[in-house]
């Protein structure tokens, strides 16, 4: 009698083999210059249940470049464990050949050359083709959106998220959960939710005053006679990481005991499979999977990790489907007698030049862009540098944004939020207003200018660092380190809060930061109500129009130890 | 745990007395206060559930709850506050359950400690770290 755990492990091995053979097929295909849609979608069906997962699209309806992180440190138990592997270590872990399509999609190495070979990724019209193909084979497949869908582009900002709502409705989403959606304000969220043809799930969204559940926690689906509970988990730290004043009536939090209660409730109703559609972030979900009993599958989001194989935690499998529409996960499950007996998974890379665009979706996207076309396409400058953001410390986009703030606002130090969204441009690309907005658009983009003491600056750095490098995942918020311009520092990621940051130096004169002196600091994305200043994209656009060409120097102002 | 509004109101009107115990801040005020409650007896583990957020959404009003079936009293301490005693809940023999919810103010990141006195006079303890952070920079 094979135990369930052994069966899962056997299935995982099979999944690995499938992944590996898929890869070798791609390599040959590339050698023949013939990567095809059929190969990307190839999947031997398994069992009786199919889940389709997409998450953290950040309103990227169009194909984009998105360079995966070069630095993505894990701390504590997560150190060196997926997804905290980059470059060669990532390729080795998953048996991916350097310079292969998968290497391009999943890692940063040799990014510019590979981007030129393989082209852009994503595009919701390509995603629509993939979803349709899966549904043609498995008509009752459940399509689940992990959130961070309505925010992140100029058109989303202009339409208060409506363009993405229309796109996702057309795509046929069956349930979603949320994070940046809330930055349109609670009234707008409620207005949209009232129109959605599917539930907006969040077991952990509570009424702040009465401390009781405020949104649907789960929905039960039926697929080929199997009953599947999908439980939603919204981003736990919304009122801390984003402006609480925009959704004052709601409280979030991990609420592990609540998750257990909901799992027990649906199990008590006799469902065959329990799926958690989560925006916790990978490490938080990893810990939750080890403590909450009875979840079969966690579809994890928020931290933008693309992991090509399921990660097993006890009897729970975790699926991480990347970001920006670069990937769609298909998970087939064999569910019998209320037990998950096996699974097969594929992280389908959305190569925009290989996957055919779905005409209806292309038309919808084009019509949503039409009113803003001239603004979107305004060319601000050209870049000679690779522009990217993702990584634990400064990306080149952040260096550019900080440079713009320092010069346009006449400040000594600039701070830019360590968000993980923001797409990539290649050397030689023109920078359009739309490109700039993929890295800056938000509903609280005011670029403030104020005085702060050296001590306050250190407190901010320490606080944000602890939100990333706290060894207990439940205390991590899932962003990256705040980006800093005009100042250098050292960080020991393994030290406790208050002791990570040292050697703070004002770059313009090399002086040590004086804890007691006031510095003129400029930044954006403050969570405080009433922040004043021009919108950050206008500040950066002004700067780009002046300089015309972006040529960034290498930035070695942050020295990382303890990694 | 989940408490409905009805439960909370019933609890507030039922056989539970919440007593605030303001005392001047001492150097090791929380240890002293706890020793006063337990009479110096060691507190065991288990049988007491303390539910608190990992990170406070608003340090000025942090919802916490305690639940200790069979307890006669549950005391709550914010160990990092100038005045660590938050509340002591006393449960009479007619109390239907021994649980309570309260919102507390936390001046900074600290451990919240709950100690329950059981019917046999023994004590159990539960602890939870609540981080109070300046926020910003979500991914």
Automatic annotation (TrEMBL), chain A:
Keyword line: Hydrolase, Nucleotide-binding
CDD domains assigned: MPP_SoxB_N (cd07411)
UniProt cross-references to PROSITE patterns, sorted A to Z: TAT
SUPFAM superfamilies to which the protein is assigned, alphabetical: 5'-nucleotidase (syn. UDP-sugar hydrolase), C-terminal domain, Metallo-dependent phosphatases
Domain of life: Bacteria
Domain 5'-Nucleotidase C-terminal: residue ranges: 398-533
Segments forming a coiled coil: none
Pfam families: 5_nucleotid_C
Record-linked InterPro entries: 5'-Nucleotdase_C, 5'-Nucleotdase_C_sf, 5_nucleotidase/apyrase, Metallo-depent_PP-like, SoxB_N, TAT_signal, Thiosulf_SoxB
Membrane-spanning segments: none
Family: Belongs to the 5'-nucleotidase family.
Protein name: Thiosulfohydrolase SoxB
Phylogenetic classification of the source organism: Bacteria, Pseudomonadati, Pseudomonadota, Alphaproteobacteria, Rhodobacterales
From TrEMBL, chain B:
UniProt keyword annotation of Coiled coil present: no
Iron recorded as keyword: no
Span of domain Ig-like SoxY: 36-137
Sorted UniProt keywords: Signal
Range of residues in the leader sequence: 1-27
Name the record gives this protein: Thiosulfate oxidation carrier protein SoxY
Organism: Thioclava marina
Origin organism lineage: Bacteria, Pseudomonadati, Pseudomonadota, Alphaproteobacteria, Rhodobacterales
């Amino acid at each position: 009698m094979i135990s369930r755990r052994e069966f899962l492990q056997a299935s995982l091995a099979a999944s690995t083999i499938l992944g590996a053979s898929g890869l070798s097929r791609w390599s040959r295909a590339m050698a023949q210059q013939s990567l095809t849609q059929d190969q990307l979608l190839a999947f031997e069906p398994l069992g009786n249940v199919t889940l389709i997962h997409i998450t953290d699209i950040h309103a990227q309806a169009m194909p984009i470049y998105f360079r995966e992180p070069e630095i993505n440190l894990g701390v504590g138990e997560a150190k060196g464990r997926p997804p905290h592997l980059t470059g060669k270590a990532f390729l080795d872990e998953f048996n991916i050949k350097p310079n292969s399509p998968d290497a391009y999609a999943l890692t940063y190495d040799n990014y510019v050359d590979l981007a030129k070979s393989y082209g852009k990724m994503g595009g919701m019209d390509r995603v629509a083709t993939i979803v349709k193909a899966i549904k043609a084979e498995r008509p009752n497949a459940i399509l689940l959106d992990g959130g961070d869908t309505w925010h992140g582009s100029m058109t989303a900002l202009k339409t208060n998220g409506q363009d993405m709502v229309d796109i996702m409705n057309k795509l046929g989403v069956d349930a979603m959960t949320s994070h940046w959606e809330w930055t349109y304000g609670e009234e707008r969220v409620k207005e949209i939710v009232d129109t959605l043809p599917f539930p907006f799930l969040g077991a952990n969204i509570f009424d702040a005053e009465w401390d009781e559940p405020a949104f649907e926690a789960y929905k039960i689906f039926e697929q080929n006679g199997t009953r599947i509970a999908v439980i939603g988990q919204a981003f736990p730290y919304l009122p801390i990481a984003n402006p609480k004043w925009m959704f004052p009536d709601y409280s979030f939090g991990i609420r592990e005991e609540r998750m257990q209660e909901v799992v027990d409730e649906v199990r008590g109703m006799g469902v065959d499979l329990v799926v958690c559609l989560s925006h916790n972030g990978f490490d938080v979900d990893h810990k939750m999977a080890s403590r909450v009993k009875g979840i079969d599958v966690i579809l994890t989001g928020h931290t933008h990790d693309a992991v090509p194989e399921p990660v097993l935690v006890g009897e729970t499998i975790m699926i991480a489907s990347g970001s920006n529409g670069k990937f769609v996960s298909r998970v087939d499950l064999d569910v019998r007698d209320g037990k998950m007996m096996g699974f097969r998974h594929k992280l389908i890379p959305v190569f925009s030049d290989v996957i055919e665009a779905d005409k209806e979706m292309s038309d919808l996207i084009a019509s949503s862009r039409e009113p803003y076309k001239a603004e979107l396409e305004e060319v601000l400058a050209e870049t000679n540098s690779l522009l990217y953001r993702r990584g634990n410390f400064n990306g080149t986009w952040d260096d550019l944004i900080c440079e713009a703030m320092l010069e346009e606002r006449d400040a000594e130090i600039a701070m830019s939020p360590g968000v993980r969204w923001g797409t990539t441009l290649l050397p030689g690309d023109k920078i359009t207003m739309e490109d700039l907005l993929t890295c800056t658009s938000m509903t609280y983009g005011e670029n403030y200018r104020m005085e702060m003491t050296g001590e306050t600056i250190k407190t901010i750095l320490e606080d944000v660092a602890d939100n990333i490098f706290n060894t207990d995942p439940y205390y991590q918020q899932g962003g990256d380190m705040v980006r800093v311009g005009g100042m250098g520092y050292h960080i020991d990621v393994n030290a406790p809060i208050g002791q990570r940051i040292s050697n703070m130096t004002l770059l313009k004169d090399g002086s040590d930061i004086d804890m007691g002196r006031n510095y003129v600091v400029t930044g954006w994305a403050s969570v405080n109500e009433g922040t004043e200043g021009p919108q950050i994209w206008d500040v950066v656009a002004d700067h780009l129009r002046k300089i015309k060409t972006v040529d960034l120097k290498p930035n070695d102002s942050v020295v990382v130890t303890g990694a | 745990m989940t408490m409905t509004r009805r439960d909370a109101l019933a609890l507030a009107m039922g056989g539970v007395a919440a007593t605030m115990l303001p005392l001047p801040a001492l150097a090791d005020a929380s240890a002293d206060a706890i020793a006063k409650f337990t009479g110096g007896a060691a507190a065991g583990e288990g049988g007491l559930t303390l539910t608190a957020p990992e990170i406070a959404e608003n340090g000025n009003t942090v919802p916490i709850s305690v639940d200790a079936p069979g307890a006669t009293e549950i005391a709550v301490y914010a160990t990092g506050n100038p005045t660590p005693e938050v509340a002591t809940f006393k449960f009479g023999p007619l109390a239907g359950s021994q649980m309570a919810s309260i919102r507390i103010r936390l001046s900074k990141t600290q451990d919240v400690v709950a100690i329950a006195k059981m019917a046999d006079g023994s004590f159990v303890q539960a602890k939870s770290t609540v981080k109070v952070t300046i926020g910003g920079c979500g991914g």
